[in-house]
Design a protein that fits this description.
Layout (H helix, E strand, L loop, with lengths): L31 H31 L33 H64 L15 H49 L6 H30 L7 E4 H19 L2 E3 L6 E4 L1 H17 L7 E9 L2 E8 L17 E2 L2 E2 L10 H11 L3 E6 L5 E8 L1
Parallel strand pairs: 2-4
Antiparallel strand pairs: 1-3, 4-5, 5-9, 6-7, 8-9
Helix pairs in contact: 1-2, 2-3, 3-4, 4-7, 5-6, 6-7
Keywords: Kinase, Membrane, Phosphoprotein, Transferase, Transmembrane, Transmembrane helix, Two-component regulatory system
InterPro entries: HAMP_dom, HATPase_C_sf, HATPase_dom, His_kinase_dom, HisK_dim/P_dom, HisK_dim/P_sf, Sig_transdc_His_kin-like_C, TCS_sensor_his_kinase
Organism: Streptomyces regalis
Length: about 425
C-alpha cells in the first residue's frame, strides 16, 4: 500500500508523566536516611554551639576582660621594664600613670588574644566533631533503616509480578518488624487472589468458548443447507451475527483480565511491524468505507508480548476506521522513537469529540455519548484493552481531540 503524504499538522503536546521526571542531582534526593543524618548532625551541631558559647562566656568572665589590672606601680627607683609582647611598655616611660595605663592595655590585649585563641581552637574542634557526628549519624541511620530497604526491594520484586517473594524480617519485635509481617500477610492474600483469578480466567476461557463454538458450528451447518427456507436462513444469519458478537465480547473480557497483570515473558517486538500488520488486517474494511490509511512506520523495538501489542495497534486502527466520516476520511498510523521511548500514534478524521468525554472512552462498555448500548462497531472494550495492555507493558496511552473532528491516540512504551 502506497503511503500518501500527510498534511502538515502541529505535533501533539507530549503528555507529562511525573513518574519519569528525574531530579537534576539524584544523589541529593531527600531520603529518610539523609533527613535523619541531618537531624542527628544538626542537633549535635546546635548543642556544640551552645556549649561553646557557654564556655566562652565563662572563660571571659573568669579572666575579667576589660577590668583594671590587678596591680599598679606607685613608686620605684631606677625602674626599667621592657616587653616583646607589649611594645607600649618602654623603659623610658615618663610617669607612673602612663606606665600603669600601658600595662592595663597590654593585659587587656593578652586576654583578647587568649579568648580568640580559645574560640578558634574550639571552632576547629567543633567542626571536626560535627563531621564525625554526621558520619556516625549517617551510618546509624543506614543501620536503622536497612529493614525499610529490604521491604522496598521486596515490593519492587512484587511489582514485577513475583508474588512469591517475602520479606521474612528477623530481629527485635519493633515497628519495622510489624510492618514487614503485615506486608508479608498482604502479599500472601494477593498471591491467593491472583492465583484464583488465573484459575477463573482459564476455566472461563474453556466454559465460555466451548458453547459459543458449538452454536457457531450448528448455525453454519444449518445455513449450508440449500433447501432451508429463506426465513430460517435469515434467522440463522441473525443468530450467527449475535453469536459472533458474544465471542468477541468473551475474547475481549478474557484479554482484558489477562492484560491487567504485568508481562513476565518479554521478547523484542518492533512496533512498526505490529502497526503494518494491523493496517493490513483493516485495509479491506477501510476501502469499503472509503477511508484512506497512510503514515510512515519507523522501527521502534520494545520488550513485550507481540500478540498483546498487536491487539493495541489493531484496536486503535479499527476504531479509527469505524468511527470516521462518511466521505473523504483518513487514518494516519506512525511509529517512531522519541526521547528514549517507542511511540505509536493513530490519528483520524471523524466526529467532534468533546474534551470532557475523552476519559470515558477508556472505560469498559463506554462509547461516545452512549453507555452500555448496542452497536455494530464493537463491544465497547477496544480502548479499555488498549489501556490495560499498555499499562501491563509499563507504558500509557493518551487521547486528544483533533481540530475539525476525530482523535489523536498516542501510545508510549518503554524501550
Amino acid at each position: 500500500m502506497a503511503a500518501t503524504p500527510a498534511p502538515p499538522q502541529a505535533p501533539p503536546k507530549p503528555t507529562w508523566d511525573p513518574r519519569r521526571v528525574e531530579p537534576p542531582f539524584p544523589w541529593l534526593r531527600p531520603t529518610i536516611r539523609i533527613r535523619l543524618t541531618l537531624l542527628y548532625g544538626g542537633m549535635f551541631l546546635i548543642a556544640g554551639i551552645l556549649l561553646l558559647s557557654i564556655i566562652y562566656l565563662l572563660a571571659a568572665q573568669a579572666i575579667n576582660t576589660g577590668n583594671e589590672p590587678p596591680f599598679k606601680i606607685v613608686d620605684a627607683n631606677q625602674l626599667s621594664v621592657t616587653s616583646d609582647n607589649c611594645p607600649a611598655i618602654k623603659s623610658d616611660t615618663p610617669t607612673f600613670s602612663q606606665f600603669n595605663e600601658a600595662i592595663s592595655a597590654c593585659i587587656d590585649q593578652q586576654r583578647r588574644v587568649a579568648l580568640d585563641d580559645l574560640l578558634s581552637r574550639s571552632l576547629l574542634a567543633l567542626l571536626g566533631l560535627a563531621v564525625i557526628a554526621f558520619a556516625f549519624g549517617y551510618a546509624m541511620a543506614g543501620r536503622v533503616l536497612s529493614p525499610l530497604g529490604r521491604i522496598t526491594r521486596t515490593a519492587r520484586a512484587v511489582a514485577g509480578s513475583d508474588l512469591s517473594r517475602r520479606i521474612e524480617l528477623d530481629g527485635p519485635d519493633d515497628e519495622l518488624k510489624e510492618l514487614a509481617d503485615t506486608f508479608d500477610e498482604m502479599l500472601e492474600r494477593l498471591q491467593r487472589a491472583f492465583t484464583a483469578q488465573q484459575r477463573f480466567v482459564g476455566n472461563a476461557s474453556h466454559e465460555l468458548r466451548t458453547p459459543l463454538a458449538i452454536n457457531r458450528t450448528l448455525l453454519e451447518v444449518h445455513l449450508s443447507d440449500p433447501n432451508a427456507p429463506v426465513e430460517l436462513q435469515q434467522l440463522g444469519k441473525t443468530l450467527l451475527a449475535t453469536n459472533e458478537r458474544s465471542e468477541q465480547l468473551v475474547e475481549g473480557l478474557l484479554l482484558l483480565a489477562r492484560s491487567d497483570n504485568q508481562i513476565v515473558e518479554r521478547k523484542p517486538v518492533d512496533l512498526a511491524e505490529v502497526a503494518e500488520q494491523a493496517v493490513d488486517q483493516v485495509h479491506a474494511e477501510a476501502e469499503a468505507k472509503g477511508v484512506v490509511i497512510r503514515g510512515e512506520q519507523k522501527p521502534a523495538v520494545v520488550q513485550g508480548n507481540g500478540v498483546l501489542l498487536e491487539r493495541i495497534a489493531l484496536n486503535l486502527v479499527q476504531n479509527a476506521v469505524r468511527y470516521n466520516i462518511p466521505e473523504g476520511g483518513w487514518v494516519e498510523v506512525t511509529t517512531e522513537v522519541q526521547h528514549g521511548q517507542a511511540v505509536l500514534v493513530v490519528s483520524n478524521t471523524g466526529p467532534v469529540v468533546p474534551a470532557y468525554e475523552i476519559d470515558n472512552l477508556f472505560e469498559p462498555f463506554r462509547r461516545l455519548r452512549t453507555e452500555r448500548t448496542g452497536s455494530d462497531k464493537g463491544v465497547g472494550l477496544g480502548l479499555s484493552i488498549v489501556r490495560s495492555v499498555a499499562r501491563a507493558h509499563g507504558g500509557h496511552i493518551s487521547a486528544q481531540p483533533r481540530e475539525g473532528g476525530g482523535l489523536v491516540m498516542r501510545v508510549t512504551l518503554p524501550i
